[in-house]
């Protein structure tokens, strides 16, 4: 059993007869009243995200998990296929178990969180950043910028990202997978 002081991003807990992964949390100590922890939980079975508040010191039932490196192979509709990089076994996961499936390109190595009790995959963690090529974007018009003007761009995985006006088709860009935002242009 864990308590609210053990809450961290990525922790898997049992809550309301389901397994949830903590995707955000904030410890709050108001001037009046007891402290509490505000969390955002994502169900690993349905993908549904809920907000919940735990009072300080509340007991939570954590799930023992292992992490393994898997390589993304391909997808068929909403089913994504991965291969373990150590023993080459393959698993299939549904799209709702993935945090940002639209930023994942074939060959990407991800971390799969597996429940140690029944060896079922719970969720997939992307690397902090991915580098993708811009396949389509409008050319930026010089002179119409006041501050930080952006334009939509489509990357090689099909995801839409807002990028600065100087980004052109064929440029490789670094994207933060946590927020799905442009970080920088990569020079070859």
UniProtKB/TrEMBL annotation:
Its main location: cytoplasm. It holds the Pfam family EFP_N. One of its GO terms (biological process) is peptide biosynthetic process. GO terms for cellular component: cytosol. GO terms for molecular function: translation elongation factor activity. Pathway: Protein biosynthesis; polypeptide chain elongation. Residues 67-122 form the Translation elongation factor P/YeiP central domain. Transmembrane segments: none annotated. It is found in: Cytoplasm. Residues 130-185 form the Elongation factor P C-terminal domain. Keywords: Cytoplasm, Elongation factor, Protein biosynthesis. InterPro entries: Elong-fact-P_C, NA-bd_OB-fold, Rib_uL2_dom2, Transl_elong_fac_P/YeiP, Transl_elong_KOW-like, Transl_elong_P/YeiP_cen, Transl_elong_P/YeiP_CS, Transl_elongation_fac_P. CDD domains: S1_EF-P_repeat_1 (cd04470), S1_EF-P_repeat_2 (cd05794). It comes from the Bacteria. The keyword Protein biosynthesis applies. Involved in peptide bond synthesis. Stimulates efficient translation and peptide-bond synthesis on native or reconstituted 70S ribosomes in vitro. Probably functions indirectly by altering the affinity of the ribosome for aminoacyl-tRNA, thus increasing their reactivity as acceptors for peptidyl transferase. Belongs to the elongation factor P family. This is Elongation factor P. It comes from Pukyongia salina. The gene is efp.
